[in-house]
Amino acid sequence: MNDAFKALADPTRRQIITLLTERHRSAGEIADQFHISKPSISHHLNVLKQAHLIVDERRGQHIWYTLNTRVLQEVLGWLLNVTLLSHEA
Amino acid sequence: MNDAFKALADPTRRQIITLLTERHRSAGEIADQFHISKPSISHHLNVLKQAHLIVDERRGQHIWYTLNTRVLQEVLGWLLNVTLLSHEA
DNA sequence: TTTATATTTAGATAAACTTCTAAATAAGAG
DNA sequence: CTCTTATTTAGAAGTTTATCTAAATATAAA
């Protein structure tokens, strides 16, 4: 779960996640939404993939990226836990 | 919210948050739970404070740290949103 | 098989992060 | 006032991260 938290710590990566909530997208489509180079986006996609927050699947020339909500749910669970357990809550 | 996500990206800081769900604690009590130096813990506390995840209050020689669940709830909200919006969910 | 498109890998650089030790500050006790 | 305890600030070292350009790989089309 540490990898997931680290992956979520970057605003570009969080925005990629937001994009993927709408529908799956190719690496190029994702890169088009940002003002940073394709190799940089590829790096971010890799960080998200290592954290299992996204899944990739090649179809022809394109590689399609999809959200994996399972890890998102684990992080959600951690946060829900500390929030609910907190005596201030 | 970026500061909160960045603050949550470190395992020591997440553990500090977990400790503070039980009850408020002084900087020294927190430091005692780890094998890293007090200045390092002080630094982590500062990162959490900058992110408004915790609040500090000096009482005499001690500084007491308390969770601020408001920011935690914001992060929770973001995650809940992307998880629920996701077509895979 | 050559060319074009999509994406990643390699290697470099600069900034940010974690940690340490030593020194400084703040408050209370004698 | 001096001493002790609690905590932070300063400054440095080593590591990781984000980004870039150039080159490599993979697939499809001509």
How would you describe what is shown here?
The structure is a homodimer of 89-residue chains. The first copy, chain A, is α+β, with helices and mostly antiparallel strands. Chain A has one domain: Arc Repressor Mutant, subunit A (Orthogonal Bundle). Helices cover 62% and strands 16% of the residues of chain A. Chain A has a 3-stranded antiparallel β-sheet. In chain A, a hairpin with a 2-residue loop joins strand 2 and strand 3. Chain A starts with a helix and ends with a helix. The relative contact order of chain A is 0.18. Chains A and B meet through helix 1, helix 2 and helix 5 of A and helix 1, helix 2 and helix 5 of B. The structure holds a DNA duplex (30 and 30 nucleotides).
- Which consecutive residue ranges of chain A, at least 5 long each, have pLDDT under 50? none
Order of neighbouring strands in the sheet with most strands of chain A = 1-3-2
In percent, how helical is the residue content of chain A? 55-70%
**What's the oligomerization state?**
homodimer
| Succession of helices and strands of chain A | HHEHHEEH
Number of β-strand runs of chain A = 3
